Task: inverse folding
């Protein structure tokens, strides 16, 4: 136990420097994947959500940002891992097919990790979701499916905003007759485009057009919108519910836990 504590203290001290550099308060999502499990066990936490990121990164701020958002909004404890050898993530059908076996393997690894009682694939298109679900009765979530579930609970006419030219099929399927419309900006086609100075204003205009056409819920079809805190910006300007995919995963995870507990 002493050696574990010593290791954890070293890890916290090292990563606290990262948090200070990024001007973020220290919390559990600042700790690397391996030591976060130890941290949670020492706290007595026995329920954690395993997050699969579908891009490869060794930048801890980038890797852990979804877990941080889930903690900030729902206080969900998480462990995050990313697939290998895909620094640009998933951007077409070829890269998706390349990623699916990696996602399946990573899901198997997380499901065997002590304390993890559910796994989520944090990508709007839910790549590998059906493949993983066919292998196990373990709780496996996907960002797109969770977002659509939350949107259906929030309203009747769901407008979806993304960065691809077509709505992810999994989201459209989940929405069924509550699907209202899909839109995107030709100027915002990659996640890096979202960091442009006018990205939030451009996406706000799309949301306002959808509302004018009868939408009563806005659903994101890109987890990158969470990174730029688009929901926080939109709710200052519009009066209908806005569903963020990262937050939706935390919400559905909590609902599943409550249901399992009866």
Result:
């Amino acid at each position: 136990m002493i050696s574990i504590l010593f290791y954890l203290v070293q890890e916290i001290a090292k990563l606290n420097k990262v948090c200070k550099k990024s001007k973020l308060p220290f919390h559990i999502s600042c700790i690397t994947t391996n030591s976060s499990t130890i941290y949670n066990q020492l706290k007595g936490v026995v329920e954690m959500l395993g997050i699969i990121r579908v891009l490869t990164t060794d930048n801890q701020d980038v890797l852990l940002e979804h877990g941080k958002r889930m903690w900030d909004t729902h206080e969900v404890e998480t462990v995050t891992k990313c697939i290998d050898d895909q620094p640009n993530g998933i951007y077409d059908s070829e890269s998706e097919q390349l990623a699916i076996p990696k996602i399946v393997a990573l899901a198997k690894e997380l499901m065997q990790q002590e304390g993890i009682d559910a796994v989520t694939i944090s990508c709007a298109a839910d790549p590998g979701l059906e493949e993983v679900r066919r292998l196990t009765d373990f709780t496996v979530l996907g960002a797109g499916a969770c977002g659509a579930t939350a949107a259906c609970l929030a309203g009747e006419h769901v407008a979806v905003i993304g960065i691809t030219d077509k709505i992810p099929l999994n989201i459209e399927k989940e929405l069924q007759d509550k699907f209202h419309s899909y839109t995107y900006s030709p100027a915002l086609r990659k996640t890096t485009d979202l960091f442009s100075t006018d990205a939030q204003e451009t996406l706000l205009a799309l949301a306002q057009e959808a509302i004018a056409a009868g939408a009563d819920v806005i659903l994101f079809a890109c987890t990158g919108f969470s990174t730029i805190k688009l929901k926080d910006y939109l709710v200052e300007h519009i009066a209908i519910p806005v569903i963020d995919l990262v937050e939706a995963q935390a919400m559905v995870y909590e609902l599943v836990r409550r249901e399992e507990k009866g």
